[in-house]
Amino acid sequence: MNGKGDKWRGGWTTEYANNFNSIFNKEKRMKKRVFIFDVDGTLTPSRLPMTDEMDRYFGAWLKHNKFYLVTGSDISKLQEQMCYHDIESEGFFTCCGNEFWIPDPHVVNISAELVYENKWTPPGDLFHFLEHVLERNDYHPKTGNHVEDRGTMVNFSIVGRNCTLEQRHDYSVHDEVSQERNKLAKEIVDRWPELDAAVGGQISVDIYPKGKDKSQVLDVIRQHQITPADEYIFIGDRTMKGGNDYPLAKLMDTETDCKYYQVKNWEETKTILEKYAEE
């Protein structure tokens, strides 16, 4: 028998098998993946820019990967945190997917073009209700900037968005015990069936029209890709029920070409990306 016949009939040596690709000039086709990231608490510490470590790692990682961002924040807050990496994305969604931006260095100041915006006028009695919630809640301190109308959604915070990082942490600990944000989100949905409300970040509740949550971004991303990806991967820190990442995670859980990860912080996100890089 010739040597080639031995190799093809199962007589390969380990060395021959391990070098099959280089011998026959055949490389394993890499999966085309598209990553989707929440920002606050997933790529960055809460309400802070990327750490130096993540900034360096992500800057190298993005040269070989396609990604989108989806956040409950507005564009100014996202750009404060992303250390200019947002301009390297395929696109980014702000206000829980109700605004979609394409990076464009020619646009002055924000370096992005607004593709769509789901304008929304909240019911007037919603603001009265939120003011009443704030008045009857005995948590202190209350730091100001409690109700933020972003044009496409409303963000509400008991402690207030003017809080320091220490006050933000203290409120987060309080909320873990009291679960008051989850209770408030449920009360809003019960009072206004046409609305959805979800816990976002460490201190707030996001409120928007029913269905206008982060789940809407998946279809937009699919349409935006010229060549469909083999796999779409979402990473977020609020994918549990009641969190503002949950609608997208729930949708992706039903799709055969999708996967999602729940993380506690940017370090866990970095670990996930490193494992994918090893494949």
Quick synopsis:
With 279 residues, the chain is an alpha/beta fold. The protein has helices at 3-11, 14-18, 20-24, 52-61, 75-81, 124-136, 165-178, 180-191, 217-224, 246-252, 266-278, and strands spanning 33-37, 66-70, 91-94, 99-103, 112-117, 147-149, 154-157, 195-200, 204-209, 231-236, 258-262. The strands form two sheets. A seven-stranded mixed beta sheet has the order 5-4-3-2-1-10-11, covered by helices on one side. It has a four-stranded antiparallel beta sheet with strand order 6-7-9-8, covered by helices on one side.
Please, could you describe this protein's structure?
- The chain has 279 residues and is of the alpha/beta class.
- The protein contains 11 helices and 11 strands.
- The strands form 2 sheets. A 7-stranded mixed sheet has the order 5-4-3-2-1-10-11, covered by helices on one side. A 4-stranded antiparallel sheet has the order 6-7-9-8, with helices on one face.
- Helix 10 (246-252) links the parallel strand 10 and strand 11.
- Helix 4 (52-61) packs parallel to helix 11.
